[in-house]
Write a structure and sequence with these properties.
Helix content is 36%, strand content 14%. It is α/β, with parallel strands linked by helices. The strands form three sheets. An eight-stranded parallel beta barrel has the order 3-4-7-8-9-10-12-13, surrounded by four helices. It has a three-stranded antiparallel β-sheet with strand order 5-6-11. A two-stranded antiparallel ribbon has the order 1-2. Helix 5 runs parallel beside helix 6. The longest helix has 17 residues. The protein is globular, with a radius of gyration of 20 Å. The relative contact order is 0.14. It binds flavin mononucleotide (FMN).
């Protein structure tokens, strides 16, 4: 058995030994990835990227997935929030991800909530965050993505998007849109639309995020009467019919979810992303946050990772049953292994995303996860992911 250097050495050192501040570590990692991205043309970087690919990624045609008109090299993507400003856009497939979601980005650049705002709950393999959409704004992301595209395709139109046709094996890029904190809720439509307008040629799919617990009032926009004008406004601007998805919270009742699904179908959404982080604090081993000394139950923020796993799978199953599998679902919440991804897929997810699991399991986890997923497909006699989607829910 190969020694897992990350889990055996690096993680204990960073998390427990040095007690590194989670936000500092995240920032440092992204800076490193950003500089790797900047120098992607150099011989040294090409070599390094090859090595990263060898250690972190895994390709097999059985894992290819096709969903809302896009081709995915594998069904496991990087969830929103890790690379809010697209610092490492174009690099995520090196780490094994079949797609990556940039953002959440808002129309106005914003600093987010005061620090500390990102916490590890190590015993629970969980993360608590109340970042509050810290990001450089939609226009900065647009400029960043144009630059990445130009680097990847020198000589092509500077403003043209790296379309799937140009890069058949590429991992699709999603862009997750949120509402600026300073924009009142009754002007949410204009805020989302302004971001979409400047970004709409630069993403393969788009996500409307109305489910973060860290922007006051945001989750109220999940109500049908608030949601409809936002989605309708975006679809009017969406002349090229880019897939538009909605990301929902895990803390909704079945009735709320059913109402959202109806709106999604009426507005011809490409799918639902289930789920964002939870405000639930039950069944945690961690009682107090070391960084603040406060009870976890008293700390604001959204919880992700292992404690969210089961609930997000339930939401996926509910949506799949409610729609008889007709609306694609991107399953996210607590995925850290092939078995976790399998549970989400067989509950009804056509694609899966993760964030916290990558932090806990380390950069080589995607290779293990994808290999495990391919093995599971083979064991079950399935030739592709699509054959497994929703199979744990019985026939409809
Ligand atoms: C630090 C942090 C920041 C996040 N920021 C965003 C965000 O900006 N937009 C969003 O839609 N989701 C955000 N998320 C939620 C994740 O995309 C994902 O839905 C959630 O963490 C559950 O997945 P996981 O258990 O694999 O982490 C964030 C999660 C974390 C841990």
């Amino acid at each position: 058995v190969a020694v897992d250097i990350y889990k055996g050495l690096v993680r204990p050192l960073l998390f427990s030994g040095l007690k590194t501040d989670p936000e500092w570590l995240h920032k440092t990692t992204l800076q490193w990835l950003g500089s790797l991205n900047e120098q992607r043309g150099s011989a040294a970087m090409t070599l390094l990227r090859k090595q990263i690919q060898q250690r972190c990624s895994y390709a097999e045609s059985r894992l290819n997935q096709s969903c809302f008109g896009l081709q995915f090299p594998n069904p496991v993507g990087l969830a929103a929030g890790f690379d809010k400003d697209g610092a490492a856009a174009g690099l995520w497939s090196d780490f094994g991800f079949g797609f990556a979601e940039m953002g959440t980005v808002t129309w106005h650049a914003q600093a987010g909530n005061p620090q500390p705002r990102l916490f590890r709950l190590i015993e629970d393999e969980a993360v608590l965050n109340r970042m509050g959409f810290n990001n450089l704004g939609a226009q900065a992301l647009a400029a960043r993505l144009r630059k990445v595209n130009a680097q990847a395709h020198p000589g092509s139109e500077p403003s043209s998007q790296v379309s799937q046709a140009q890069t058949a094996s590429a991992a699709p890029l999603g862009i997750n849109l949120g509402k600026s904190k300073i924009t009142p809720l009754d002007q949410a439509v204009e805020d989302y639309c302004a971001s979409f307008e400047v970004l709409k040629d630069l993403g393969d799919y788009f996500v409307v995020n109305v489910s973060s617990p860290n922007t006051p009032g945001l989750r109220q926009l999940q109500a049908a009467e608030q949601l409809t004008p936002i989605l309708a406004g975006l679809q009017t601007l969406n002349t090229e019919r880019r897939p538009l998805l909605l990301k929902i919270a895990p803390d909704l009742s079945d009735a709320d979810i059913a109402a959202i699904v109806e709106v999604a179908l009426a507005q011809k959404l490409a799918g639902i992303i289930a789920t964002n982080t939870t405000i639930d604090r039950s069944n945690l081993k961690t009682q107090r946050l070391v960084a603040t000394g406060n009870l976890v139950a008293d700390e604001a923020g959204g919880l992700s990772g292992a404690p969210l796993r089961q609930r997000s799978t339930e939401v996926i199953r509910f949506i799949h049953r409610e729609t008889q599998g007709k609306l694609p679902i991107v399953g996210v919440g607590g995925v850290a292994s092939a078995a976790d991804a399998w549970d989400k897929i067989t509950a009804g997810a056509s694609l899966v995303q993760l964030y916290s699991g990558w932090v806990y399991e380390g950069p080589e986890m995607m290779r293990h996860l994808l290999k495990g997923l391919a093995e599971r497909l083979a064991q079950e006699g399935f030739s592709g992911i699509d054959e497994a989607v929703g199979t744990a829910n019985g026939s409809h």
